[in-house]
Amino acid sequence: MNIHWRLRPALGRTAAVLAMGTLALSLAAPASADVKASRKCRGTIAKSGALLAKTVLKNVDKCHAGQTKAGLAHGPCNDVATSAFDPKGKYPASKTKIAGSITKACLAGDPVLGNYPGDDASNALFAAGETVLIGNAVLTLGNGTLAPALQKCQATVAKSRAGIINEIIKGSTKCQGGIDKVGTTFGAIDAGCVNPGAKSVAKAQLSIAKACQGVDPATLGTCTPFPACAINSAIQAGQTIARDIYSTPASPVCGDGSITYPEQCDDSNTISGDGCNSACELEGNTCSPFLATRTVTISVTADQPFAAADINLDYPQFQSGLFGTGQSSLIQNAIVVNQGTPGNYLFLANDRETDLKMGLASSEDEFNTGLLLTITFDGCLALEENICNRNQNVIGCCNGDGDDPGGEDCAYTPPVCTSFPMGSIGAGTPEDCCPADNACVTQVGATLCSIGNAVTAVGNPVNVTCSVNVVQ
Predict the structure, then answer these.
(1) Given the DSSP bridges, would you call strands 308-314 and 355-362 parallel, antiparallel or unpaired?
(2) pTM, whole model, 2 decimals?
């Protein structure tokens, strides 16, 4: 699945790149570090980061299985310097090979290297990957001695977390790679590319429930609640590594005045209500001025129950909005899942200010035809006002033919349009106030949903369509 959700980063509108700015950047960059070379460097680092993660996961999981079988404690597995983790002594050689590939692909002075401390991408990958993955192993697989009867359960947890992490890294780097192919600057990963690992999450919930039935989590040495903690921590680990592959900032401290991922803001305090809340999440980024709440519901029609799906909602960007941005808790709190059993599914959303990307994943086929989601937006313009579909800041348009059932007909001729939220832009043109490449639509008509990658709990595809209802 390709839901670009997480437990949530900020995402703003795409900015236009001015020609003079581009020229300045090209003049500032070393001649050897041209765009083509940077793309190669970037791709090599991404490939190396994915390879490192697979290597560490494979060694850790194999070690834990071996220690359980031998009746030994698992602590040595969670240390890359031990012989238990690396019995054949191959791990240092693999790191050397990765470092060599990056050195060969990334020329000195390449701006891509500026994303890492000391311009050292290799060590940044090693430090981040090992710390995150080993920390996740301690959390999900434990350190103590494990009874042989629990090996199947633990092996399933290990395989599931590896599947989630690898899917997230693969999906995230593929998405960012597509952006980099046409990009000219190479900073942090685009927040929309941070993959949720939804297919592996759904599979993990089913597999763990089956393999660990009747198992007391305390005997596994894993975090609780089980298995939600193990699955969620795997998602977080995979997404952290996906970000660290492209840039590795220092650990953030909310309130220190420095914005560091995953912070969306940092105003040197931890007081909510001043635009940056106590979790360093932006409190603005909605439409203005507020008129009334606007409720959008998404209903689905499915040919059979499904366990997971990508859901996208495109909404009028100036006429409605959500308090908060990206994947903050403020966005999550505005959305209600109307189906499924709480605790049995994961729901994640990412508000990109022009559209809302969401995803559901469960271990069961919990979702079916009917009302699925209810979203409470801020409404900043009466729903009856028409808008231009591309230049959505232009309101009051109409098509002028007098026979349109969608509500776009002119109440008067010529129409008087305004540029929201600014003043009048004058009488209608032959395009009825909208620029030539626009169409005049209702706000309801501009609120569109789509469903993708719907599958059952065992991964079989399901045909699902959706519809929206908008009330203000």
Answers:
(1) antiparallel
(2) 0.54
